Amino acid sequence: MKTERILLPVDGSESSYRAAYCAAQAAQLCGAEVLLLHCVDQTEQNGEAPLVDTTLAEDTTTNRHPKQADALGMATANDLIGPVRDILEDHGIRYMERIVEGEPATCIPRVAQNTRCGLIVMGRSGKTPSGRLPVGSVTGRVVGAAHCPVIVAP
């Protein structure tokens, strides 16, 4: 399989960190870069300010009116992505990061398609941004909606 970019959604769950190891191995095999994605679902934010969509240069069609980033929200997203950065760096993998506003089950396939990812690697189950509710159904919905193969890490 030849792919140049792998999408790796990160939500701070153990499952998403395990998926990072799978994505690193796949990236090494394919010579691909990894796009780290964190989706902020405003329905879970309980009134916190929305985050900005840190968009890739070639993907200018989404979030044409980005909202002001909330410093605390950005710090939280950075904390969730940090351990995955370490995993990818330890494996010598090139990566980019993106934080988007929206429900993960719809954002993940959309971002994968808009950024021309040839593969999505994600955990079997995760947690909502608040960490209170399991959201394993997100993975199933992504598998059904994705335009590319999806590897589900245990």
Run of helices and strands? EHEHEHEHE
- The CATH class, by name, is Alpha Beta
- Percent helix, as a range, is 25-40%
The number of E-state strands comes to: 5
CATH topology: Rossmann fold
The profile of the biggest β sheet is: 5 strands, parallel
Helix count equals 4
Give the strand order, joined by hyphens, for the main sheet.
3-2-1-4-5
How large is the share of residues in beta strands?
A: 15-25%
Please give the domain count: 1
| CATH superfamily placement | HUPs
Secondary-structure-derived class: alpha/beta
In angstroms, what separates the terminal alpha carbons? Answer: 21 Å
Low-pLDDT segments, ≥5 res: 45-69, 130-135
Mean pLDDT across the residues is 80
What CATH architecture label applies?
Answer: 3-Layer(aba) Sandwich
Q: Which of globular, elongated, flat, extended, rod-shaped describes the shape?
A: globular
In words, what does this structure look like?
The structure is a single chain. With 154 residues, the protein is of the alpha/beta class. It has one domain (5-153): Rossmann fold. The chain has 4 helices and 5 strands, in the order E-H-E-H-E-H-E-H-E. The chain has helices spanning 14-30, 71-90, 104-114, 137-145; strands at 5-9, 33-40, 95-101, 119-123, 150-153. A 5-stranded parallel beta sheet has the order 3-2-1-4-5, sandwiched between helices. Helix 1 packs across helix 2 and helix 3 packs parallel to helix 4 (137-145). The protein is globular, with a radius of gyration of 14 Å. The relative contact order is 0.26. This is Universal stress protein family.
